[in-house]
Structure formats: C-alpha cells, structure tokens
Amino acid sequence: MYKTLTTNKSMNQIMEGNSHSSIERQFFNQLMALKQEAFRNEVTANNHLKQQEALISHSVHQLKTPLASINLIVENNQLKNPELDSIWETLLLESHKLDNSLNQVLLYTRSTHLLADLNIEELNLESIVKEVINDLRNYFIQLSIFPKFKNHDDEATIIYSDKKWLRVAIYQLLTNAIKYSDPDQSVMITISNCQLIITNIGDSIPKKDINRVFDLFYTGSKGRDKGEATGIGLYLVKEILTALEHDFILTSQNHETTVSIDF
Amino acid sequence: MTYNILIIEDEVLIREQLKEYLEAHDFTCTIETNFENIMETFNKSNPHLVLMDINLPVFDGYYWARKIRQTSTIPIIIVSARNNDIDQIYGIENGADDFITKPFSFELLMVKINSHLRRVYGEYAPTENRQNILTIGQTNLNIDTVELSNSDFNESLSITELKLAKSLFEAYPNLVKRQKFFSVIWDEHDFVEENTLTVNIKRLRNKLSLVHSDLEIRTIRGAGYQLVNKNETLY
Description:
Chain A has helices spanning 2-8, 11-16, 22-80, 85-111, 114-117, 125-135, 137-142, 163-179, 207-210, 221-226, 233-244, and strands at 120-124, 146-151, 158-162, 186-192, 195-201, 248-253, 256-262. Chain A is an alpha+beta fold. In chain A, a hairpin with a 2-residue loop joins strand 6 and strand 7 (256-262). In chain B, helix 6 (159-171) runs antiparallel to helix 7 (178-185) and helix 6 packs across helix 8 (194-210). Chain B starts with a strand and ends in a 6-residue tail after the last strand. At the A-B interface, helix 3, helix 4, helix 6, helix 7 and strand 2 of A face helix 1 and helix 7 of B.
C-alpha cells in the first residue's frame, strides 16, 4: 500500500480513481490533514517569532530613552559639580555597559535572519577597521588602552564582505580586546596578507574555556569575575564570520590573546 | 547673534537637560509642549535649528519634518532611539538633515549643531565677539596664530601642543584629566599613543619657560596635568 502511494500513482490519480480501495483514500485524507496542520503550525510559529522580535526591538528602544536622560543628567552635573567627578565617570561607564548590552540584544535578534540580510560588496579592509577603531574611541580612552594599527600589505587590502555585519564582528572583537587588556597596554591591530590580526595583552583564556567562548551565553571565568560578560558577543562573531565565510582562529597563551580572520 | 533652537521632544527630562546644556553654551531654546500644532510654535519662535524626536504624541517626527519643509529650509536634526539604517533613511527622505541616536553625548550633539549652523548661517557668525586669545596672568595663548606669548617673548606651537595648551588654559586653575587630553589629541588616522601625550607636554613645558611665563605644568600622578602659577604656589 505504501509502496503504491509513493512509487506508482500520483496524488491526482488516487483522488480521481474509483478503482482504489477506501483505505487508500482514507490514508490520503489523513496525510492532507496532517500537511495542513503542519502548515498552520509553521505560520503560527513564524507569527509568534515575528511578534517576539518586534516586542524585543520595541522594548530595547524604549529603554534607550531613560538611558539617554541619565547620560544627559550626568553630563550636565559633571559641569556643575566637578568635585563628584569619579562618581559621574562610574555612572557613565555603567550606562555605557547597559547601552552595549541593549545593542547586543538588538543585534542578536537581527542576526536570526543574518543570511537573508547579507549584502556582499567590494570593501577596503583598512578603512573599515579604522572606522571601527574611531567608533570605539571613548572606550579606548576611558580604559587607557591604545590602538596600535599597522598595515603590512603594499596595496589596498580589498575584500568581499558585508560591510554592516563585518563591522559588528570587528567592533565586538575589539571591545573584547580592550576589555580584557591590562591597564595602559596597547591593542595591536594588524593587516597582513589579507588577514586581520587583533592581539591584546592580558590574562590568557584558560584552556578549558577556549573552545567554549563562542557558545551562546557562555561567560568564561574572567568574564564572570568582571561581571559584564553577556555571552552574546562572541557568539555573534562566530555566527557572522561563519555566514560571511571568513575563517577565524582564536589563540591565547603567555598572557596574550590573538584573533585572526582570513579574508 | 544668538542662535535659537526649537526642541521638540515629549520626554520632559531629556528636553530639560538639552535646554540647560544649550543655554549654558549661549543658545536660546524654545521648548514645544503642545504636540497638536507644532507649526504654530515653529512660526512664532522662528528658530535657526530644530532638534526633534521621532516618537511623538499625535503625529510622528517624520510628519512634522515634512510640514516644516513646506515653509522652511532650516537644519533639522532628528534625535531618536532607533538606530537602524531604514529609520535614518526615512528621516532624511522626509526632510531631516541629520540623525543622532539615543543615548548620545553632548559633545557629539554640539559638533552636529555647530556644523549645521556654520553651513547654513556662515562661518561662526559672531567671530568678532569670540575670544581667540586665552590669557592667564601675563601669558597669552593665541588660537589664531598658534602662538604662546609673554611680554616680548613668542613661541609658535604645533597643532598638538596647541590643543593641549588650550585644554590647560580653559581648565585653569583646575586639573585636566589624562582622558580629556587623549580625547582632544585623538587622530582619525593615527589614533593616539600614550607617548604622544608625554612628549608634547614636555615640549609645551619647554616653550612656557622659553617665553619666561609664570605658568608651569604640574603632573598629578595617575590623574593628569594642571597649569599652576609658580609665584602663587605655597611651599
């Protein structure tokens, strides 16, 4: 019976034919009902997902307004009460962390349709890296960490990638390099042979953590000590670089951590 | 001339903080509180620039940007929590000139406001009133000629030295934090290195003594630098 259905007869034949047993028709009807149910479930699940995404995006943007108020109040008070400066600085730093986490949630939500969203074009790697370094200017300065940029390639390093998502990945990797640097150290950012290499000096990642740092919600022992790791950032990096088909390697030993991306 | 800025923002805390900061920086502000008819306030206050949120009661900011554009070409800067490309494109297509994402710093806001005002109303209209020479005691820092002077003595400065000296003169007699210096001398292409600060402070110290200034730069370990008057220091 099963064999008949799948090999010899088309669905229409089964429907039209009077020559078939009622058991065949019954089975067919059951299949159609299941198919419809599966379709309905898929639509419901998709709607649900869309609604959830809209809710997250809406809530995150709602949270940004009070955050903006806090920042402006702090900045106005920095001018009025400079004697409390260390308190204002702490507040700004905390608010920066909050904003960072909110952005990660947004990016994570958007990354679920990462592949559909890609727009591959010809890009100059050096100018993208420099843009991201400039975006992180305040974070570098706040933590007294300095970027040391070098391009060893003779000609402009042209790569094929998605500008928006590649920027997100580099931003995340640099944020981590700054966050886990020893004070007053430099983050080395090097372009060489179509490779981007980011190295920071600071506690190495323990061997037991290194294969798991790209897992969602995984925060290594260092991240937990610092109390600010969300476990989203490096997961996003992995998703993005995998979607863009750029190979990458993370190594960490002798108080040095290096990420290299091959383009 | 004082520039008048119209603030269209339904969040009370934000508009009050904006007003406080802008008025402290020699702007006048008009605050919209009735979101039913923004054009009435717009016509009455006749602003030089509009700062406007997108999510507003009654109609959204895109609507008001289109309305304003029917009668005026003044700069409109949109202030919004939404940070994706589509919102920015939509804002600009509806007549806005620029976009700033919440949360933002006053520093960035001022850069944007000043650049739009400069573009529309000319190179810093009130130039003659602007003080381009900073003076402490007998020592002058001339921003236009990039020179340090004291009675008959003159020393020209490099751009980096000028930036550092300006921060020190403006903060006098207070300390200027290291972070502030790094922020001032950050370069879009070469960024900044720790060494750049120490080397340039050393050069500036040298030039202060070359013009026989009463001022000297004191190092506050781990914090920053401070301009002090040698003669007033109590030991």
